[in-house]
Amino acid sequence: MPELEQQPRVPMTRRYLMCPPRYFAVDYVINPWMDPSVPVSVDTATAQWTELRDTYRRLGHTVEEIEAQPGLPDMVFAANSGTVVDGRVLGSRFRAPQRTAEAEHFRRWFVEHGYRDITMPEKINEAEGDFAWTGKVLLAGTGFRTDPAAHAEAQEVLGVPVVSLRLIDPSYYHLDTALFVLAEATDTTSAQIAYYADAFSAGSRKVLERMFPDAVIADRADAECFGLNGVSDGRNVVLPVEATGLAARLTERGYEVLFVDISELRKAGGGPKCCTLEIRK
């Protein structure tokens, strides 16, 4: 086993912004997981979301909430509405018109909570849906939602290096459905990620192999249950309850896995990370 895998996993306290699924519904189709003919339950979605929120709080993380708005059933997927690095906020600009209005509600939340360094993008940019901060580099997805030009815009606004990755499977339309950061890089340690290789172009796979030779590689079963839409604090990893294969591999690497049921939220194409916008000061 590589030396990296034997290092103790250190959790880092996080601050998250979430939106309760008060108006959750599947009334339209903007990704392959959505089917308006399949009934959904707001009560079930709310119970699952609440358990996810409470899991974060039990781990010692801070969770703030933004008020849900009528007519915006996907607002629960807060990760798509902002990217925050070192207190700088890059807002979102949605590709689907059904979600466009969400961006302004999140911008107002940041303004009302004292953030002044806020930029709303000119290019299509679905925020942490397609941006993953590794502690040193921002991994940026494109192919289905976020415009490639948004990657350069993010680099200018956030002042961090950006590495572009191309997604090729429409089932994994956002980067956060195919990759997540397990442990951020520090001055003495490298970042570690987990990803589903078949979601990426050949060139992007080579980039990931070069940058993260010790990555945890997920299989199709992991990906199909949104296992790559996990959330990690560096030690504790929150995964969908079905992601047992990925959980076993993470446990071997020294991570502690906590399972949550996101089956109702998954009907709209969302999982733990989709519901979780991280605020990094």
TrEMBL record:
It is an enzyme of class 3 (hydrolase). Keywords: Hydrolase. Its EC number is 3.5.3.18. This is Dimethylargininase. It comes from Amycolatopsis coloradensis. The lineage of its organism: Bacteria, Bacillati, Actinomycetota, Actinomycetes, Pseudonocardiales.
